[in-house]
């Protein structure tokens, strides 16, 4: 162990670079080389430490009594069992979180589709309204004529006058003329109101 520590300190002393006469490319190259040496050296040092610890544990294991080995085995089994239970709870928690995230994403998609359909229907209905209004306008005549008919409806003094103006206005709007019999609409009350 002492030899490994001494080798590491010597490598640190040799790694000192005089940067006053070094270009950027040389500095970068030495940095990469130094990092690679440190990384590989660290792995080798850890491997050596693990092998030394395993050898020490084997030597102690041969000298230990059966009671110590039994207790150590129970401790190891207990740690592994509890660790496994802990990992099970962590896995369950992560699974539930993932399922909840998927459910939230599904709900967001459904809300987006609802909003998209509502917006689409709103624009379609507005377009339909514009087309219908333009069609009525094209087949019906001018605004001034509609205005005159509405004024005639408001100032009508008899039922036939009101009916004539209403039928003309309905024709301008593209609606069917009112052909029902006047008796079906309480004609006596309407006629009495206009006398």
TrEMBL record:
Pfam families: DUF3336. One of its GO terms (molecular function) is triacylglycerol lipase activity. InterPro entries: Triacylglycerol_lipase_N (IPR021771). Residues 145-181 form the Triacylglycerol lipase N-terminal domain. Keywords: Membrane, Transmembrane, Transmembrane helix. The chain crosses the membrane at residues 57-80, 86-106. GO terms for biological process: lipid metabolic process. This is Triacylglycerol lipase N-terminal domain-containing protein. The lineage of its organism: Eukaryota, Haptista, Haptophyta, Prymnesiophyceae, Prymnesiales.
